Amino acid sequence: MEETEIKYSQIKDSAFLSRGCCQPPQLYHDNRHITGHACCKLDSYDWLKDIPLPEDQPVFDCVEIRFKNSRKEFFRVYPEMKLQSGDIVAVEASPGHDIGIVSLTGEIVKLQMRKKGINSKSETLKKVYRRARLTDIEKWIDAVNHEEKTKLKTRKIARDLNLAMKINDVEYQGDETKAIFYYTADERVDFRELIKVLAEEFKIRIEMRQIGARQEAARVGGIGSCGRELCCSTWLTNFRSVSTSTARTQQLTLNPQKLAGQCGKLKCCLNYENDIYLDALKDFPNTEILLKTKKGEAVYQKSDVFKKIMWYSYLNDQSSLMALKTDSVSRIIEENRNGIFPEQLEDYAVTREVKTDLNSVSIEEEDISRFDQSERKPSRKRRNKDRNRNKGKYNKQNTQNRSDSGNKDKTGNGRRNNQRGDQNK
User: Fold this and answer.
1) What per-residue confidence (pLDDT) applies to 425?
2) Is 132 left (phi over 0), alpha (psi -120 to 50) or beta?
3) Which SS3 state, helix, strand or coil, does residue 276 take?
C-alpha cells in the first residue's frame, strides 16, 4: 500500500514537468515562479521585451500559450486584459475550455505568427477567457494526475482488442471533458471500437492523434549516443527531413547502427553541420573527372573537406593513395583540358598512403570472450583450493601404486612357493 502511494505521489510531482512547470501549481499562491525560464523545451525568450513601443502604437492583441509537450497555440486577448509570461489562463476549446500557460506576449508574438504562417486578423482565432480561478486550477491538477493512469488502462484495452498500435501519451483538457490520445502505428488502424470502449470507461470525449517515431522519441526522452539528452526532448521542436545524402556529404560511413537514433530514423544532428560542409564543398573540383598523367589515369577515392585534401589512386594500382590539395587537382584538370599531361601524381602529392590487402594476410580469429578473462593473479583461497585438489590427486595415485605393487608381491610369492613345492617332489 505504501509503495503504490509513493508511486502515485511521484506521478503527481512529475506530471507538470511536461508542461514546463518545475512543480505542481498551488491553489492559494502566486504560480508565476514555477514557469519562469527553467530548463524546459517549451521555454521562450522575448528579446523585444526591453524595447518600448511608440506612444501611438497599441499592444499586440494576441499571445502565445503553451500546453503539454511541444503543443503551442495563439489566442486573442481582450483589450482590458493585461497578461504576462507565466500566467495560467483559461482559453477557448471545443468543447469547453482548456488551461494553459502564457509563454510570449507583445510584438514577439507577431513575429512568431508570421513565421508560422498564421493570420493575426483571422476571425477563427480562439480567445482567452480569463485568468485561471481556483476552481479552474483545481480541476486542472486533477485532470493532469489522471493522465498516467488513463494511459496504462488504454494500453491494456488496446491490447485486449488486438490493435496493432502503441499509446504513447494522453493529454487531458483542463476542464476534464476531453482527452487527446497520441499513438504510433505502422499501418492504418481501425480504432472505432476502441473509442467506444474508452468513452464508456472514462466518461469523456475522445480524440485520437497519430504521431511519428520522432515525436514518440521526443515524448519518451532518453540519452543519445553522444551521452546527452535527446535534442528532440530538450529543445528541438521543428523536425527537418534527414536523408542519406547528408551523411555522404559529410564523408560518413553508411552504417545504420551508427547513423540511426533511438527512434530508428536518421539522427537529427546530421543536419547541424550539413550547411557548413556544403559551403566547403563548393571549392572542390568534380570528383567524377579522372586525372590523366603519363604514368596513367587516377581516380578519386576520398577527401578531407576542411583540410581541402583529396585522395587519388591509379587505376592499375588502387592499393596506394596519394593526397593532393584541391588547388593541385584543379590545376591538373585544367592542364588535361589543354592537352597537357604531367609526368606523375607523386610530384603533386602531399602524403602517400599504402593500403594493406587483407585478403593476402592471414588473421587468426580470437574468441570475443577473451575480454571477459581476468588477468589478475589467483587469490590465496583459490590457490589453497587448487593445492588441496592436487594433493588429493597425488594421494589417490600413491594409493593405487601401492595396491598394484602389493598385487605384484602376492603373485611373486605364490610363484616362489609353487616352485619350491615342485622341487621337493
Assistant:
1) 41
2) beta
3) helix
